[in-house]
Write a structure and sequence with these properties.
By secondary structure, the chain is of the alpha/beta class. The protein has 2 domains: 29 residues; 193 residues, 3-Layer(aba) Sandwich (Rossmann fold). Helix content is 41%, strand content 18%. Helix 6 links the parallel strand 5 and strand 6. The protein is globular and about 85 Å long. It starts with a helix and ends with a strand. The structure holds S-adenosylmethionine. S-adenosylmethionine binds next to helix 4 and helix 5.
Length: 246
């Protein structure tokens, strides 16, 4: 008797679940049906994602996929494995509220040199959905770990000054997160002569988003030949990519 009641309850629960699934599928709009106002932007996103996928697919067989948080952990831990205790530099471009800065610096027993204007972008993020000035904190500095050494101001000014003061630096780790093309290209061109063999560069927006071709990816491929670096890790839930300098 008890067994039959259990069977009936399970049957009823299963039927309710099936009806709910049919109802949800019927009522939720297909992702391919756009309202006219969103059509161009949404279609652009779809096409960009497809083109990014087709471009990067050949590299997927030699790299790993991780979610964003684990990818960041992988990036800094891989850099630390290659660090033989010399005075190597760990750098971040783009601090904002300090989320990534505090994460990376928490893994280090040395300084993280972090750059930001705290005034947002100095140019439009073309191909994407942000304008010059977005991400501004009106120069308010976030709360950061003690081993974060800040370079405040436009990177076009602070980085050349920093290089002048540290002409012998050997860079072992870089987090690239100032997003826009001109700024990213400026950073990569300036740090390239100081990169250590096997240095890790973690890009926050390199692939898998609208505008990928005209942002950090363009800056990377215009600054480095394909044989100068290896794709090590791709985000499986975002736009992040880790490369190793050969
Ligand atoms: C996307 S946010 C960084 C987010 C941060 N890395 C994180 O994950 O928490 C980009 C930051 O780059 C800074 N930035 C963009 N272009 C810059 C430039 N040319 N010079 C200095 N800072 C810049 C902005 O002020 C902003 O705080």
């Amino acid at each position: 008797m008890k067994k039959n009641i259990k069977k009936i309850i399970l049957f009823l629960l299963d039927t309710i679940r099936k009806i709910r699934t049919i109802y949800r599928n019927y009522t939720s709009p297909s992702p391919l049906v756009y309202s006219p106002g969103h059509y161009a932007y949404k279609r652009f996103i779809d096409e960009e994602l497809n083109e990014s996928y087709l471009y990067f697919k050949k590299y997927f067989y030699e790299a790993i996929f991780l979610p964003k948080e684990r990818l960041r952990k992988y990036a800094i831990e891989t850099a630390l494995k290659n660090d033989k205790g010399e005075n190597k530099y760990y750098m971040e471009f783009g601090v904002y509220t300090g989320e990534s800065t505090n994460f990376f610096s928490s893994k280090l027993n040395k300084n993280l040199n972090a750059f930001d204007s705290f005034e947002g972008f100095n140019e439009d993020w073309v191909g994407h959905a942000h304008a010059s000035g977005d991400f501004s904190l009106n120069k308010k500095i976030p709360k950061l770990n003690k081993n974060v050494s800040l370079e405040i101001g436009w990177v076009q000014e602070t980085l050349p000054n920093f290089i002048k003061l540290n002409p012998d630096m050997k860079i072992n780790f870089v987090h690239m997160d100032m997003d826009t093309y001109n700024t990213s290209k400026f950073i990569l061109e300036n740090i390239k002569p100081y990169l250590e063999h096997k240095a890790i560069i973690c890009f926050d927006e390199l692939y898998n988003f609208e505008g990928w071709k005209v942002g950090e990816f363009k800056a990377l491929t215009e600054t480095f030949n394909e044989n100068e670096f290896t794709y090590k890790c791709f985000s499986n839930d975002g736009a992040q990519v880790v490369i190793e300098y050969n």
